[in-house]
Amino acid sequence: MSRDDDVLVTGLGALTPLGGNAADSWQALLDGRSGITDLRERQDDWPEDLPVRIAGSVSVDPVDVLGRVHARKLDRGEQLAVAAAREAFRDAGAPQVEPERLAVVVGTGIGGVLSALGQDDLYERSGMRKLSSYAVPMLMPNGPAAWVSIDLGARAGARSPVSACASGAESIALGLDLIRLDRADVVVVGGTEACLHPFMVAAFAQMKALSRQEGDPSLVSRPFDAARSGFVMAEGAAVLVLERAGFARARGARAYGAVAGAAVTSSAGHISASDTEGQVTAVRGALRDARLEPRDIGHVHAHATSTPGGDLAEADAVVKALGDHPVVTATKSMTGHMLGASGAFGAMSALLSLRHGVVPATRNLDVLDPGVRLDVVSGENRTGRWDAALANSFGFGGHNVSLVLTRTT
């Protein structure tokens, strides 16, 4: 039984390469399906000279969800965020909360880069008169949070963490703080990203971060596998509704679980390399915040992007902070890396694993890297009963976020 001051998750929403809603995305994870495809199937004019031609595109067009009139004012990342937030709020039962007690925290790693590049191209070709009057709101990183707050009438603040690939997870941590500090009763939290553009793919490829593996796109993202060669870019959005337990109970809301603890750290080292010690600090901080011990964590949803160094750094951090007993999964093997949305989707997946007693198998894990001393689920899903899970999320710039999720009865 939760206490009145616990923070519950009462609603889920998602648009991912696996599904147009949270339930379909979760079922696809259980089915072991991949959402990674050839970009040339999506864009006929995708440059043939780029070394990377695969990515994870959302399976449902957000324009179809929002309607063309409203969607044309929004960047694609904003469209994804609003669609996912509407689903999550509806899934929570559309809580009747005073606008001044309803907050929004939606992060993004990059912001409206599609709009920025598209509007710049339009300006170069046709001049100022052709620019959209919404060009600035479309490219602002705070745009997704702002549009969600407008859509839901939330007046307790619209915050926008921009911490690279940790943005979605940091949004959940900030939402947890807002409820604990009594600044809101309900907070809509999550992350969004839409940057599948030749420029962005070329930029990440130039960093040697993306896999250039040829062949079947569904086999390329392979976290913790000895043959992994880099991550696969993806777009998507994931949104959760957080509520003070007393408020949720008073209205008879159903809960998926609770956010029991969070920690945000910065490695203050390399701009893009993973740092084991910074990650260890985040995991231990989240445990302290949740008042749990390492042995209490039964499941870990790993950040695990499928990069050679990043996966090893995280594996070492988990062993140092928790030991080798938790059951681990890496769902980016199926979704690809949704950047600013990935941390929120990871937390959502971890919560559902606790609720349903099943951890999705990591796809494409044929040979576990000998340097990974973890119980990574592969082949078949793992069933069991776990009371607490850890969801990790790390980003360029040394951003480290760990979340502790717990099962509720």
UniProtKB/TrEMBL annotation:
<comment type="similarity">
    <text>Belongs to the thiolase-like superfamily. Beta-ketoacyl-ACP synthases family.</text>
</comment>
<dbReference type="InterPro" id="IPR016039">
    <property type="entry name" value="Thiolase-like"/>
</dbReference>
<dbReference type="InterPro" id="IPR014030">
    <property type="entry name" value="Ketoacyl_synth_N"/>
</dbReference>
<dbReference type="Pfam" id="PF02801">
    <property type="entry name" value="Ketoacyl-synt_C"/>
</dbReference>
<dbReference type="InterPro" id="IPR014031">
    <property type="entry name" value="Ketoacyl_synth_C"/>
</dbReference>
<dbReference type="GO" id="GO:0005829">
    <property type="term" value="C:cytosol"/>
</dbReference>
<dbReference type="GO" id="GO:0006633">
    <property type="term" value="P:fatty acid biosynthetic process"/>
</dbReference>
<feature type="domain" description="Ketosynthase family 3 (KS3)">
    <location>
        <begin position="4"/>
        <end position="407"/>
    </location>
</feature>
<dbReference type="Pfam" id="PF00109">
    <property type="entry name" value="ketoacyl-synt"/>
</dbReference>
<dbReference type="InterPro" id="IPR000794">
    <property type="entry name" value="Beta-ketoacyl_synthase"/>
</dbReference>
<dbReference type="InterPro" id="IPR020841">
    <property type="entry name" value="PKS_Beta-ketoAc_synthase_dom"/>
</dbReference>
<protein>
    <submittedName>
        <fullName>Beta-ketoacyl-[acyl-carrier-protein] synthase family protein</fullName>
    </submittedName>
</protein>
<keyword id="KW-0808">Transferase</keyword>
<dbReference type="GO" id="GO:0004315">
    <property type="term" value="F:3-oxoacyl-[acyl-carrier-protein] synthase activity"/>
</dbReference>
